[in-house]
Amino acid sequence: MKYLDLEITNHCNLGCYMCPVGTQTMKRQRGFMSMELIEKLCLELKDCLIGGIRLIRWGEPTMHPQFLDILQKLKETGTLVHFNTNGTLLDRTMIQKIIDLEIDSVKFSFQGVDKISYEEMRYGSSWDTLMENIRLTNELRGDREKPYIQISTTTTMETKEQIDQFASLVEPLCDYYNVGHTKLSHLNVDGMKISDERKQVFRRLQEQENMIKQRLDGCPEVFDKLSVDWDGKVTACCGDYDRELIIGDFSKDSLQEIFQGAKIREIREKLSRNDYGKLPLCKDCYQYIELQK
Fold first, then answer.
1. Distance between CA 169 and CA 49 in Å, rounded?
2. Between 92-100 and 127-141, two packed helices, what is the crossing angle to 10 degrees?
3. Half-sphere exposure of 124 (CA within 13 A, CB side)
4. What Cα–Cα distance (Å) separates residue 46 from each residue in 39, 40, 43?
5. Which residues neighbour 291 within 8 Å (Cβ) at sequence distance 6 or greater?
6. Can you tell me the distance from the alpha carbon of 57 to that of 28, in angstroms, rounded to the nearest whole number?
7. What is the pLDDT of residues 113-149, one digit of tens each?
8. Backbone region of residue 290 per phi and psi (left: phi > 0; alpha: psi in -120 to 50; beta: other values)
9. 106: β partners
10. Does residue 147 have a cis peptide bond before it, meaning omega lies within 30 degrees of 0?
11. Beta carbons of 46 and 80 less than 8 angstroms apart
12. Taking the CB of residue 265, how many other CB atoms lie within 10 A of it?
């Protein structure tokens, strides 16, 4: 197994319009991973070769009341540790602790390329708070190598000039940045607190996206990693926010047993034959090509 995606919580402090969590599309129970499960994972990591652990999936990991303790326990296993964050709940004390723990990498997630486009899509967030916390992380890290700082955003209708301005702004603050295209399949246009005119624009973009999606050439998910929800349920798919491809329960079985189990082997065989239509989620899974500006 190359790496493990760990959801320590599926709670989030934001209401992002393109996310199943923010739009309340996700129906499963919300909660926080217990320290008992974290301890079980740390014990298993001593005997299980995993390239790294990513605290990502659905939810904002910094909302976990024991977030820093979890980072420390995972680092003590010698495993590479990464986490994604919307960055709005961090403060100087947390950032300094993350640096002192030598967490390997952190990705700050954006939407859009400036204050207006960012706050339009990420309801309840603050561009200024996020930018300040990124600057502070970069400043406090100083000459240290860790954490590796990533910045990631996606766009809808931003111009090349706007994207270039964003790149010029964030490049000095991070080690790597990327700009992708916002996936609009979960976008709740009616729920967006924007003008009717802007809503029409987003509806048009949704329609265009539906016309240009294509099948993936191959799916690395089931061959490279596992995704563990906050309560220990394990899914074969990173996009499985409502338990459609559950293959095991980490509270009962080991990661290796699940990774080598019959349920995931069956999924691998179907995907190897490109039988997408025979699996939930997979039948509607596509590679989204960026719209031409």
1. 39
2. 40
3. 11
4. 11, 10, 6
5. 181, 205, 208, 209, 212
6. 14
7. 999 889 888 888 999 999 999 999 999 999 999 999 9
8. beta
9. 83, 149
10. yes
11. no
12. 13
- With beta carbons less than 8 A apart as the criterion, state whether 114 and 153 touch: no
Q: What is the mean pLDDT of residues 152-167?
A: 87
Q: Is the pLDDT of residue 35 over 70?
A: yes
Give the pTM: 0.86
Q: 28 Cβ partners below 8 Å, 6+ apart?
A: 10, 229, 241, 242, 243
Mean predicted lDDT score pLDDT of the chain: 86
Cα dihedral 124→55→173→292 (10° resolution): -70
* φ/ψ (deg, to 5) at 248: 175, 180
- What is d(CA 35, CA 194) in angstroms, rounded to the nearest whole number? 41
- Identify the burial level of 159 via C-beta atoms within 10 angstroms of its C-beta, where 0-12 means exposed, 13-18 middle and 19 or more buried: exposed
Q: Are 249 and 234 in contact (CB under 8 A)?
A: yes
Could you give the C-alpha distances from 287 to 198, 217, 226, 244, 270, in angstroms and in order?
Answer: 26, 9, 20, 20, 18
Query: Does residue 85 have a pLDDT over 90?
Result: yes
The encoded tokens of residue 82 equal 């990464």
Q: What is the pLDDT of residue 95?
A: 97
Between CA 279 and CA 285, with CA 281 as vertex, the angle to 5 degrees is 110
Q: Find tokens 């111009």 and name the residue.
A: 159
Strands (E) located in the chain: 3-6, 15-16, 52-55, 80-85, 105-109, 122-123, 148-155, 176-181, 225-228, 233-235, 246-249
